Write the structure tokens for this entry.
Amino acid sequence: MYEKGQGVEVDSTASVLWYRKAAEQGSVHAQNKMGSLYKQGTTTLPRDIEEAMKWYDMAAKQHNPDAQNNYAWLCYIKKENIEKGIQYIKESLEKTPDNIRRLDTYASLLFRQGNYTEAEITEKKALDGGGDKKVGYLEMYGDIQIKLGNKDEAMKYWRMAKEMAGHSDKLDEKLSTENYVE
């Protein structure tokens, strides 16, 4: 209500207050929302990834597929709790096996784990489901290909990613060195 000004003026402080109250009372939606608010930071709430993970984890334990994906993605970014992230994302994919965002998260965690063959299969499924229009998915598929020793395929997907806005700041270096850059 306060977040979008539905019947009241927009008030981010009140919005956070009410989301927190609901989250503390067990609302899965509010717990996931608190995770997102902490992940992004707001004018009234500082960015805090550890706090975001705490709230996502609460909602993920209640089998919320969005929270499971959000928690798993932060595991990939932070390079920690990979096994727990995989557990959550696999459960999430049982409910929505064709969700490209969740497939990409799973592939990214498999990549982080060094399971490049399974990461390739999973990311390809995401690409075939519409992820071929998402720069991060293309770049990840290139990363997987280089780790599998398929330099030509890696270069192909990295070039496709380069043509799109929003690619990582490491992509130019990957292209110039023809190698993966962490």
